[in-house]
Write a structure and sequence with these properties.
Strand 13, helix 8 and strand 14 form a beta-alpha-beta unit. The protein contains 14 helices and 17 strands. Helix content is about 45%, strand content about 20%.
Length: about 375
């Protein structure tokens, strides 16, 4: 019926509209919520290009002179009162703090999404403030057991729920194995790593260790390394590549579209993640869906979704062990294929439709309390 109120009105709050992992998960969830008949709004600060696909979603860009601009809080309060959402959901620390305060002031039920784990939050005034304000959330949804445990240790009384990230499996399956346009004529096995060239809340990627592993592996097997991502450490890592003598066998692609990354994952001989910590590791999950063999750090976040039947685990600081693991993938192709098929079957359960349905259940429980 024309003018009929949607099943639910949801306002998402996040700092950026960009290609980052949290932002992609937001776009997947929001698009599925539209399909479910919800009215979806998003408020954000920075509009990075290209932004995720956000058709039929109401966009509200906030004005700000900086991350700590007090005018942001007033804008959020005014926007919430204007939209009158049933649920406010916040993504990333800045909006967890400002959006959480705005939701409490306006009396709207608030969901905080936890994207990481305890190691992402060293002692600081900002992280302490996030805990203090987060304690008043109606529910905290973590994408990993590690994230849930982080909040359990705070002894909160709100609902704590784990909902894993979703994968656009249909879109992933449509991509064909291929190299980026600026990389041609590579017949060597590709050893791939994807991630921000930073050490921050998104996870310590240990890219310098990855490069040392590449140098060690290159001594025993002809390989070609590719690192996808951008960040402040790129110049430092490029200098290290020259120092290690692998600069001619390693490419930094910078930022690629997510479809280009999937095509590259399908082309690569092995995907390596040596992170010290993660939440729910998007790129590892995508590599699983793409059928790319895995060598990954032995950390709780990886153990939550994989085991020895589907991946090879290593101590990220043990360069000889990681080198042997990569060589094992390259040389023992039959066993590697078995692990890859098991990993793919696991990934097939992480549909966006399932993720959105689980969020919907939490929203309903919050609204009926």
């Amino acid at each position: 019926m024309l003018g009929e109120r949607p099943l639910m009105r949801i306002l998402h709050l996040l700092p950026h509209l960009s290609r980052g992992g949290a932002e992609r998960q937001f776009s997947y969830l929001a698009q599925e919520q539209i399909k479910l008949g919800q009215e979806v709004h998003v408020a954000y600060l920075y509009d990075d290009s290209p932004r995720p696909d956000l058709q039929n979603i109401s966009l509200n860009q906030l004005k700000s002179s900086g991350n700590h601009d007090p005018y942001l809080l007033w804008q959020l309060i005014r926007l919430i009162r204007k939209i009158n959402p049933d649920i406010v959901q916040t993504w990333i620390t800045q909006m967890d703090i400002l959006g959480g305060v705005a939701a409490r002031i306006t009396g709207v039920p608030w969901i905080l999404r936890e994207p990481s784990s305890a190691m992402a939050y060293p002692s600081s005034w900002k992280n302490g403030l996030r805990i203090f304000i987060g304690s008043s959330a109606n529910a905290i949804i973590s994408n990993s057991l590690c994230g849930k445990k982080y909040w359990q240790n705070k002894k909160l009384h709100c609902e704590l729920q784990v909902i894993r990230n979703g994968l656009p499996l249909y879109d992933i399956d449509r991509e064909v194995a291929n190299l980026p346009l600026n990389i041609t004529g590579q017949d060597c096995p590709i050893v791939l790593c994807v991630g921000r060239l930073e050490s921050n809340f998104s996870g310590k990627k240990n890219l310098s260790l990855f490069m040392q592993v590449l140098a060690s592996t290159k001594e025993k097997h002809n390989i070609f390394g590719i690192i996808c991502g951008t960040g402040s450490k790129r110049n430092e890592l490029e200098k290290l590549a020259h120092k290690l003598g692998i600069h001619e066998n390693l490419v930094f692609t910078g930022v690629l579209s997510v479809k280009s990354i999937w095509a590259l994952m399908k082309k690569a001989a092995v995907y390596v993640s040596l992170s010290s910590f993660e939440g729910c590791p998007n790129t590892v999950m995508e590599a699983m869906a793409c059928g790319c063999p895995l060598v990954i750090s032995d950390i709780p976040a990886h153990r939550e979704i994989l085991d020895e039947s589907s991946a090879i685990f290593v101590d990220p600081s043990d360069i000889p062990q990681t080198t042997i693991a990569i060589l094992d993938v390259l040389q023992n192709t039959v066993e590697s294929k078995k692990r890859t098929l098991i990993a793919r079957r696991i990934a097939e359960s992480w549909t966006i439709k399932k993720m959105a349905a689980e969020y919907q259940k939490v929203y309903r429980r919050v609204l009926t309390k």
